[in-house]
Design brief:
Length: 318
């Protein structure tokens, strides 16, 4: 005969099992809604699942993913942190927090969470690549090289995106031949993959193949008119190829659209100089120095260009 104490334990065990099963069913339903693009329905399912299993790191992580889809980033951060509190060894919320902080332009926090994620998932090549980009953009070149090398150990170029990522890492490390090979591999997998075409153009330009670079950048702009830096690099390719008039026309149009972009003004100065328009070149270089948005690198290049023209440095324009 089962005594009351044992019967109560069996009932409680069955009840707990049923709650876990129901929460898993709701979580799977929510995941399907999220996959189908219905974030509101997914949110409702994950909240119901959490009512039954409030300490589930998987459900809390999926809740965070849903809130990101709904652009509710602060709530998503809270959900990911709750997932970490529930199980500090579950890796996914760390990577997702890194992505959210990238979206919020908080590179320091993003790098910290990628580092914590990779301590738990040390074979994720995509994460190493993303961390490498963050290091690169914050001037941590040695750390970036190490991250890109780690990415190369774990990434297999089986998709256009992965092959492009491997190419970017090789390019940053100065191995232009390997980069070129990876970008060509990416385009063999998906001829319409714009990032691979763009980076192939940059590699052509760095290797002195101006005609091929021009062809690549023109193809990028035909496919994606606003692709970042493609128009500027096309102008650089024109200028390097001796087509200064084309470079000037393109950069003047860009400057009308982006009047505070120091990179455009700087390259326009070089294009004017190549076209023999010294006064216009001088004015462009001076403009770079006075732009509040100019990067230190652009200011330094403008100052050197003015010195080469015999005009002087930024001190003359304070």
């Amino acid at each position: 005969m089962i005594n009351d104490e044992k019967l109560t334990a069996v009932i409680m065990k069955n009840s707990t099992s049923q709650r876990i099963q129901k929460s898993q069913e709701l979580s799977m339903r929510g995941y399907q809604h999220l996959f189908d693009g219905d974030a509101e329905q997914a949110l409702a399912c994950f909240h119901q699942a959490l009512d039954l299993a409030p300490e589930s790191p998987v459900i809390l992580n999926n809740l965070g993913n849903t809130l990101v889809q709904l652009s509710r980033l602060n709530e998503a951060i809270d959900a990911y942190n709750q997932a970490i509190d529930a199980n500090p060894t579950y890796p996914r919320p760390y990577a997702n927090l890194a992505i959210v902080y990238q979206l919020a332009d908080d590179s320091e926090a993003a790098m910290q969470y990628y580092e914590r994620y990779m301590a738990l998932a040390p074979d994720d090549g995509e994460a190493y690549h993303n961390l490498g980009l963050l290091y690169m953009n914050t001037g941590r070149d040695e750390a970036a090289r190490a991250a890109f090398e780690s990415a190369a150990r774990y990434l297999v170029p089986e998709t256009a995106e992965r092959a492009t990522n491997l190419g970017v890492g090789a390019f940053f490390r100065g191995d232009l031949d390997a980069a070129f090979s990876m970008f060509e591999k990416a385009l063999s997998l998906d001829a319409a993959f714009v990032p691979a075409r763009y980076h192939l153009g940059v590699t052509h330009l760095c290797q002195g193949r101006c005609a091929e670079a021009i062809e690549a950048f023109e193809a990028v702009l035909e496919a994606a008119q606003d692709y970042p830096q493609a128009a500027v690099n096309l102008a650089v390719a024109y200028n390097t190829d001796g087509q200064a008039d084309k470079a000037v026309a393109l950069l003047e149009a860009l400057q009308e659209q982006q009047p505070d972009e120091s990179g455009v003004a700087l390259n326009l100065g070089f294009a004017y100089q190549e076209a023999g328009r010294v006064e216009d070149a001088t004015a462009s270089f001076c403009r770079v120095i006075t732009l509040p948005t100019a990067t230190p690198g652009h200011v330094e290049k403008a100052q050197l260009a003015l010195e080469d023209l015999g005009v002087g440095t930024s001190q003359d324009f304070d």
